[in-house]
Predict the 3D structure of the following.
Amino acid sequence: MTDQQTKLSLSSASADDLKVDALVLGVAPRKGRRKGVDVVLGDLTVRAAGLRKLAEALAAIGATGRRGEITKLPGGGIAAAPMIVALGLGSPDENIDDADAALEMLREAAGTATRALAGTKRVGIAIAHAERVEAVALGSLLGAYTFRKFRSANDLESMPDPIAAISVVVADARDQTVRKSVARAEVLAGAVRLTRDLINTPPGDLPPAKLAAAAVEAAKGLPIEVTVLDEKALAKGHYGGILGVGQGSANPPRLARMAYRHPKAKAHLALVGKGVTFDTGGISIKPAANMHEMKSDMSGAAAVIAAVYAIAALKLPINVTGWIPTAENMPGGKAQRPGDVITIYGGRTVEVLNTDAEGRLILADALVRAAEEKPDVLIDVATLTGAAVIAMGQRTSAIMSNDADLRTRIFDASSTAGEAMWPMPLPAHLRKAFDSPTADIANIGGRYGGMMAAGLFLKEFVDDEQKWAHIDIAGPAYNDGEAWGYTPKGGTGTAVRTFVQLAQEMSGR
Ligand code: BES
Ligand code: ZN
Ligand code: ZN
């Protein structure tokens, strides 16, 4: 599906016999008062002599076993692999209050290890019990991600090759549950990789038509029906929000619909993703600093495309409809102006007071359209507000909803999936500031609580009977800092795993 890369396999060889270029073993601070580390093997095996030697060598060079610590040492006398990587897992009881958090710690650790091993051909990982193999497999694949499509062959020589193969060591590689877990991890990793690739693609290479084509591409070979409305069809259908945002660009807007149907489905989940392929702000133009990061303003759309793909690839017994409203927000002679009034799909009018508050306009069209099918649950996901980054920080997404139970279900799914999200309210008093003298509603409200205010704007376009939630991923979608755990610089792929988890729970599996 994407051009990467890393092959994953299971092995039940004794870890020290594994023929790899680097063998990753887990270590933790030694219990009791003696300094040094304990090797954490779970149900795996390493010969006692090698183990003793390893613990001595690590103690001699001051390894602590702290979480995320990477210590590389020669494998000679310990294992067949020429290099051993001791991966700090932290002490088992430190800050880990529940099973979800413990699994996420393992994903992060596995990702830290594979990130530190970029350029290594074959990596072996022997760090956990069989029941945790999915976390190890997923974290290691996510950490092995690279994005090299836009580097010349020249530069590729100086850039490490992605890891070619990862073997995860388990007690019994033929165990059916273990194999299923690994297969699930591979699908999830593929979906996250697709999301990251789409986000990282330069905006000039991913206009709305290309993003819609990516939805068609992702559906190939799967029972997903994709339809794409072009600018003419959008005009005929009266999609005033998508058209208004897209009218300043030479690259016309689109609305893609992906329908995955399962014969035994008992529930219908609809997902809507903001697909602004580049957000200059339009006539209300953004400052130049870091504007290039607005190539990530289609992260919600990318997550929806990838989630529908993954749910179909896993054959989950549920119906899922993915909606991708996509436009490029550009200034220009044909661009919408502050003060213009547009008509959202379904007839409500919006006075556009700030053309940079564009995500809510394209989402409004898509939400009204998606709700026509009366899905059991309707969720939109968007890099919607700078205010979300201020309120939540760069690593936590916000969940807002018109249904407290749905909000909790999404929160629980996100914890299980290992994506940081937190419930936030939709305080009704913030709605008043959206009153417009000219149209039904304006597209900006007051100064404070901008994230929740944007949520309230969207709520106007969803009937109260329709269970709906809004997830603002403006902080976590794009990592403009250093890589950490399994998260690279650039697109992160956040929200995909939460959607797959929620779909799995809704499907009763
Ligand atoms: N795409 C931006 C929000 C954003 C900002 C995402 C930073 C990721 C990082 C959105 O379209 C926007 O510009 N929102 C405005 C809304 C305002 C004009 C009411 C904002 O947040 O400043
Ligand atoms: Zn904007
Ligand atoms: Zn935007």
Notes: The longest helix spans residues 176-200. The chain has a mean pLDDT of 96. The first strand starts at residue 7 and ends at 11. Residues 378 and 468 are 5 Å apart (CA to CA).
